Description:
single chain; alpha/beta; Rossmann fold; 2 domains; four-stranded antiparallel beta sheet; 8 helices; 42% helix; binds calcium ion
Amino acid sequence: MRVLVIEDEPDLLAGIARALRDEGYAVDTAADGEDGLFKAESWPYDLILLDVMLPGRDGWEIVRRLRERGRRVPVLMLTARDAVADRVRGLDSGADDYLTKPFALDELLARVRALIRRGADQPAPVIPLADAVLDLRARVVLRKGRPVPLTPREYALVEYLALHRGCVVSRTDLYDHLFGEDDDTLSNLLDVHVSNIRRKLGHDFIRTRRGHGYCIE
Ligand code: CA
């Protein structure tokens, strides 16, 4: 899952980005409204974390423009003041949720998980897969009740395919949603992750549709 964080406080931006990357999300960042809107319109993000007060364009304008252009990406607004009017304005502009600063990272991560689930039309936090279960809350794959030791990036790949289970997901889609702007996108990286996952979960856990992409049944 690929997340865009638009925030002009450098320490907060770095802290949020690090916490998300530790969880296996691909993270892009923008420190002002212009760059943020440009990136938001350029890539198919699974979620945008959007500060309200930004140089360039403010968060309200960014979310309004995205909605005007038909972008359905979930948006979580980060509001500096605990003012009702600010929160109402954010939600009315098209944001899906808000968090008031200062916030606990654990709460931010929980809201990120919930919004991504909702964006993927997956209301239940657990997805059954062949002989395993994917738990979106704990971000873990369980087999016979035991967690399978996946790296955060391997988990992210399984999660993306599981949220689109039964569908063939193209390599381009996987690169767009699993790797951020700073990631090394050597073309064989995806194959390495897939073969590591197959070693841990069985060869048929991820099926290859030659010339089309990958699929979890
Ligand atoms: Ca700000």
